[in-house]
Amino acid sequence: MAGGWISRNDFEALVAEAVKSLPKAFRRHLTNVVIEVQEEPSAEALDAADCDPDDSDELLGLYWGRSIQGDSFFDAGGHLPDRVYLYRGPILRLCDCEEDVVREVQDTVIHEIGHHFGLSDDDMPY
Questions:
Q1: Mean pLDDT taken over the chain
Q2: With respect to CATH, is domain 18-67+79-123 assigned 3.30.2010.20?
């Protein structure tokens, strides 16, 4: 269970601030991306990330969708928006103070949005 020392509302505000701090050139490509806070990763998310359920604290966020490099002019319209999930529980358990949470939220947002731009885990510094 996640620590209660940063409320869900405050955590969501940190996520919103991390997105807002992205350069405008990147933010304009996020119109079809939903960024959502969840308390814990689901079994489906752990499976998608190839994480063992016993290691669920290792999954801090997840990008679910097609990168913009994967989109095609010929794709049928009306597909569901891509999603970035941030997992409050694992992030709070990883961090010792609010400053660490702010940094981890920023790093995780950047990392997961990097997948939207077609970057692999190996391409990113976080």
A1: 87
A2: yes
